[in-house]
Here is the input.
Amino acid sequence: EGVGPQEYTLIKLKVLEPRPKILASITKPLFFVAATLRPETMYGQTNCYIHPDINYSAFYIGANNDEVFIGTARSARNMAYQLLTKEFGKVEYVEGLASFKGAELLGTPLKAPLSPLERVYALPMLTIKDDKGTAVVTSVPSDSPDDLVALNDLKKKKPLREKYGITDEMVLPLEPISILEIPGFGNLAAVTVVKDMKIESQNEKGKLDEAKKLVYLKGFNDGKLLVGNYAGELIKDVKKSIQDDLIASGEAIKYSE
Ligand code: A2H
Here is the structure.
């Protein structure tokens, strides 16, 4: 990656009921937090991804430990140095929840900002890295080849769903949502590129990297919003405004690493 720090938008996905057992005792407002470079795609969120074998933590955020975030301990430390915790450089974990496996979080219902879906679910993704962002990834299968291919894997493979306790209802109704028009790629860019390049599974890393580069660059330069307050505008003109709006409404924060 580049030399300087990368700035992400950290999207706050509010935990809904019923909660997984491991989060039952938390009384403060509780969020899964997902780092994204594409805040303008949040209109197309259909689910969230968690790696079953990565260790996650629950930690306090805010001057008075006002909220609880779910992410990796590594990301919590970064947040502590970005003035997001009560004490600079210090992370306070929820008692007993300094480290637990992502598998415990699968199936959690969440409210994803700007998504037309009332609730989205935490589903397994095996290509999530533990050393980038929070290791929580919000899923936009219309515009992210990674997200689309992981969703297709879950749809195709009942044993994969069963292994992680994911019900058919959490996966089978999900379809990519048209949110951006990208010249040459249509209004479901990831679907187009995954089909054209014949990408069959989340293990095809080389092809996926190429697919990502293709749509990312073209989308940023020439892509247009189809939905929301900025419908009809170019992505490059409104990306920042969408980030600002999400931050102003308390649904996102800035995060760097
Ligand atoms: B992006 P970069 Cl629509 N492991 O958000 C794997 N992937 C991760 C991650 C992790 N620990 N943390 C974040 N990401 C994903 C939206 C999106 C993203 C779209 C299209 C492309 C895209 C919706 N998912 O990323 O290495 C997040 O997915 C293409 C690279 O820092 C985040 O933005 O460039 C992006 O990777 C950050 O990756």
Remarks:
- The longest strand covers residues 7-15.
- The pocket of A2H is lined by residues 6, 35-38, 41, 128-129, 132-133, 135, 137-140, 143-144, 147, 212, 216 (CB under 6 Å).
- The chain has a mean pLDDT of 96.
- The helical segments are 73-80, 145-156, 158-163, 168-171, 189-196, 205-222, 235-248.
